[in-house]
Specification:
Length: 201
């Protein structure tokens, strides 16, 4: 329920209708068979949009699911090898890497050097190439070999990870209120936090 007396109204086509009494805005929404939703409660006066609240709620839930999916894909797991690793151990560890990738995680595959082994970095690179080839059907190399301290590593990602990031629009607003703020139609809240929308009765 919207309890404030006056609100700034944006209609279902994105047109600003100006500031009006909340009761009048509710009548406008009802005439169109839609809802009056408070999308920027911290603005003065608060901004309301005439829209289908069911569709609005569905869009927010869909975005939340996509955000969780992206967060999961950014989880890192790590597999470590020694330069003189036994072939059986190599198979076991690459199988584990495949499991991580199939679960949607990124995997850091590292070769650790002991003592003078670091003078033969090409052995570590060859081992990483071999591991990447064994994992190849389940992941792609996201970051080429990089030296970090006494270890050489690559980052492997699920095959869909790059596609998801490429398809993801940059700077996409999470809510209608944020989208309107991004377009300069309403001011942004000082704290940047989105509040649950109030829906007119």
């Amino acid at each position: 329920m919207i309890r404030i007396r006056e609100v700034r109204v944006i209609d279902d086509e994105g047109q600003q209708l100006g500031v009006m009494p909340t009761a009048q805005a509710l009548v406008l929404a009802q005439e169109r068979g839609l809802d009056l939703v408070e999308v920027a409660p911290t603005a003065v006066p608060p901004v309301c949009k005439i829209l289908d609240y069911g569709q609005y709620k569905y869009e927010i839930q869909k975005r939340e699911r996509e955000t969780k999916k992206r967060q999961k894909s950014q989880t890192f797991k790590e597999i470590r090898f020694r330069v003189k690793i036994d072939p059986h151990d190599l198979q076991t560890k690459t199988r584990r890497a495949v499991e991580f990738l199939d679960d949607g995680d990124r995997v850091k595959v590292a070769v650790q050097f002991r003592g003078r082994e670091i003078n033969h970095a090409h052995l570590g690179r060859n081992l990483l190439d071999k591991a990447a080839e064994m994992i190849g059907d389940h992941g792609v190399i996201e970051r080429p070999p990089l030296m970090e301290g006494r270890s050489l590593f690559i980052i492997m990602a699920p095959p869909t990870a790059r596609t998801d990031r490429k398809d993801e629009p940059e700077g996409e607003a999470e809510t209608i209120g944020e989208r309107l703020a991004a377009q300069g139609q309403i001011p942004i809240a000082a704290d940047g936090e989105a509040e649950p929308p109030a829906v007119g009765a």
